[in-house]
Amino acid sequence: MVLYFYMIVQTFLSLVLVGLFYGSFSIFIRAVLPSTNCVSLTAPANILEVLYLIFLTSVLMLSTTVDVKWAETGFRAASFGMGLFTVVMVVCTLWFAAQEPFGSFAVVFLIVLLGSYILPLVMNVSNLKFCDFVKGICYSVFLSPTYINIFTTFAISNIHDVSWGSRPTGGDQQMKAAENKKEEDYKNFRSNFLGIWI
User: Fold this and answer.
1) pLDDT digits (tens, 9 = 90+) for 74-97
2) Is 70 exceeded by the pLDDT of residue 198?
3) How far is CA 149 from its chain centroid?
4) What is the residue extent of each domain of the chain?
5) Mapped to the 3 state alphabet, what secondary structure does the chain carry?
6) Which long-range contacts (CB under 8 A, 24 or more apart) does 28-35 make?
7) What is the mean pLDDT of residues 105-132?
8) CA 12 → CA 3, 9, 46, 99, 196, distances in Å?
9) For residue 138, what pLDDT is reported?
10) What tens digit of pLDDT does each residue of 35-58 get?
11) 13, 80, 130, 135: most buried, per Cβ within 10 A?
12) Does residue 133 register a pLDDT over 70?
């Protein structure tokens, strides 16, 4: 019973994760940088938000229209751009927390967050290399949008792809017709599911 509940929660979170990440980015960037209420390219927060939406749209287009080996360069560019957005968020968070009094909610939250990174280092200090640990944290922070945005979007956009199966294809025409019908059903399901997800 607990396993089923965990699977349901995990599935739900994976469906809303991209929107939650975008929402938190939008709220944060508008709170820290000057912004306007409409879509505009005059305020820094609006410029970053429009760029973020361009990256999300390009990832969705690459995931649904192009074979993965041809889309790799686009995915890498989106990954790098979104990683830079995360670096901007980290820098702005530290700048914002530095202006707050020590006992404020923002500073306490930041200390708890930093503690979650430092605690594993302290608990395993004899077996851990400090430089490798810091590099791992940097990679984790920089690549978190790749996992959240690109991998999730690609997985949902290609939910119909069952080409990884190892079942041999038969030469029978009836079997091929059934396979084509099943593939068409999978594509229709993907279109409906992707539309609801977006």
Assistant:
1) 888 888 988 888 888 888 878 877
2) yes
3) 2
4) 2-159+174-197
5) CHHHHHHHHHHHHHHHHHHHHHHHHHHHHHHHCCCCCCCCCCCHHHHHHHHHHHHHHHHHHHHHHCCHHHHHHHHHHHHHHHHHHHHHHHHHHHHHHHCCCCCCHHHHHHHHHHHHHHHHHHHCCCCCCHHHHHHHHHHHHHHHHHHHHHHHHHHHHCCCCCCCCCCCCCCCHHHHHHHHHHHHHHHHHHHHHHHHHC
6) 28/89, 28/92, 28/93, 29/88, 29/89, 29/92, 31/96, 32/92, 32/95, 32/96, 33/92
7) 81
8) 14, 5, 29, 36, 13
9) 86
10) 887 767 788 888 888 888 888 888
11) 80
12) yes
Structure tokens at 161: 């792809």
pLDDT for res 151: 84
The amino acid occupying position 101 is P
Spell out a b/e string for 95-113, using b for 16 or more CB atoms within 10 Å of the CB, else e.
Answer: eebeeeeeeeeebeebeee
**Global model pTM greater than 0.85:** no
